[in-house]
Specification:
about 150 residues, alpha/beta, three-stranded mixed beta sheet, 4 helices, 7 strands, about 25% helix
């Protein structure tokens, strides 16, 4: 018998300076800061969060990365370019943050990952809808939205 993995609650990122990490990420993302001190900070995206942990000896990622789903990927691309951030070669919107953490930006509507409707509404993102392809992928796994018969 095994426990079922339900999802990812958070990711912890090593950064050299907590205040600088909060500034860097807030330059292209909106989020809520729930706790902050010199050694760590917690930033929430609705019901999930990133934990920044101070580590002065951080080595840059190569293939290891994490993805952030956003409502407007092109806006993030333009903002990162305006910040002078070098985008990595490849099919995705990947970059290294100032501490070497590899980040991939993806569009929420195009992927299977789904927030509950009430969480999206609470975040002011109730307008976001999945693409037909993302819904087809979810439906193929038996994970698509429930369709009610109004008859």
């Amino acid at each position: 018998m095994k426990a079922y993995a339900v999802g990812i609650n958070h990711v912890a990122l090593e950064v050299g300076n907590i205040r600088e990490a909060l500034k860097f990420y807030s330059d292209f993302l909106s989020f809520e800061i729930h706790q902050e001190n010199e050694m760590q900070a917690f930033i929430y995206f609705g019901d999930q969060f990133l934990n920044f942990i101070k580590n002065d000896n951080r080595q840059p990622d190569q293939m290891r990365h994490f993805g952030i789903a956003v409502d407007n990927k092109e806006l993030v691309r333009q903002t990162l370019e305006g910040m002078g951030i070098k985008l990595l070669n490849g099919p995705f919107l990947d970059f290294l943050d100032p501490w070497g953490n590899r980040v991939e930006i993806t569009t929420y509507s195009n992927i299977q990952y789904t927030k509950a409707d009430h969480v999206l509404l609470g975040m002011g993102l109730g307008h976001l809808k999945k693409t037909d392809q993302a819904l087809a992928e979810l439906n193929a796994k038996g994970l698509g939205p429930i369709q009610y018969d109004n008859n």
